[in-house]
Automatic annotation (TrEMBL):
The active site is at residues 95, 165. Involved in the gluconeogenesis. Catalyzes stereospecifically the conversion of dihydroxyacetone phosphate (DHAP) to D-glyceraldehyde-3-phosphate (G3P). Gene3D superfamilies: Aldolase class I. It catalyses: D-glyceraldehyde 3-phosphate = dihydroxyacetone phosphate. The gene is tpiA. Its EC number is 5.3.1.1. This is Triosephosphate isomerase. PANTHER family: TRIOSEPHOSPHATE ISOMERASE. Homodimer. GO terms for molecular function: triose-phosphate isomerase activity. Signal peptide: none annotated. Keywords: Cytoplasm, Gluconeogenesis, Glycolysis, Isomerase. It is found in: Cytoplasm. Its main location: cytoplasm.
Length: 248
């Protein structure tokens, strides 16, 4: 019912030259994939040059962040209008590295989510608990707060994606077990049902992120409420990202 979405988050990796080289090889590798969506979020500098290479392909582009204003005196920031114009369809918002390295709050992330949907960019809202929050039994409370605060004011008609990324599993090689991830995904879908009703909640894709690799993607994707993956490290090489995209 929900079309899977496999998304790569390159973080601060790859020059323009490296990005273009990847894009050329990757298009060829995934050209026959038609039953799922594929997205790559490169660094800002690579978005436009990659859009030129990916034109007409089945690979969408996303950004890893944006500011909520359209333009103006916001040194160092990039706007939703700029991202759309450069070729983005998606924008990752509230990634844990934005929250915990750059101090982004739920309130700021909510402004960005609202701005993204009003500019017809699809936000991928990331939620996830820190290791200490999990150990204190606060996982449900944390992800519920991040979800409801992040989506405040977002209308049912807006398309958005949620990514559950337990912070202790990002870049650490520690993946949540499929059962543990599914427990949170089904909880998030229940919360979406409370916020938007069942039909909308059933249509929202909830991705899992945190050390997804070719070896663990099958188990995760077999879960009822896991609708895709947000992949960091393993999206940087054509062969590993291709294997993840082609799960199943
Ligand atoms: C991420 O950056 O969103 C991520 C999940 O990273 P990794 O796959 O490297 O854990």
């Amino acid at each position: 019912m929900r079309r899977p979405l496999i998304a790569g988050n390159w973080k601060m990796n790859k020059t323009v030259t490296e990005s273009i080289e990847f894009a050329k090889g990757f298009i060829e590798a995934v050209k026959d994939v038609t039953d799922r969506d594929i997205m790559i979020a490169p660094p800002f500098t690579s978005i436009y040059p990659m859009a030129e290479v990916l034109k007409g392909s089945n690979v969408y582009l996303g950004a890893q962040n944006m500011y909520f204003e359209e333009k103006g005196a916001f040194t160092g920031e990039v706007s939703p209008i700029m991202l759309k114009d450069a070729g983005c369809k998606f924008v990752i918002l509230g990634h844990s590295e934005r929250r915990y390295i750059f101090g982004e709050t739920d309130e700021l992330i909510n402004k960005k989510v609202l701005s993204a949907v009003s500019h017809e960019l699809i936000p991928v809202l990331c939620v996830g608990e820190l290791l200490e929050e999990r150990e204190l039994g606060k996982t449900f409370e944390v992800v519920e707060r991040q979800l409801s605060e992040g989506l405040k004011g977002v209308p049912e008609s807006a398309e958005f994606v949620i990514a559950y990324e337990p912070v202790w599993a990002i870049g650490t090689g520690k993946t949540a077990t499929p059962q543990l991830a599914e427990e949170i995904h089904s909880f998030l879908r229940e919360k979406l049902t409370e916020l938007y009703g069942k039909s909308k909640a059933d249509s929202v894709r909830i991705l899992y992120g945190g050390s997804v690799k070719p070896e663990n993607v099958e188990g995760l994707m077999a879960m009822k409420n896991i609708d895709g993956a947000l992949v960091g490290g393993a999206s940087l090489k054509v062969d590993s990202f291709e294997k993840i995209v082609k799960f199943g």
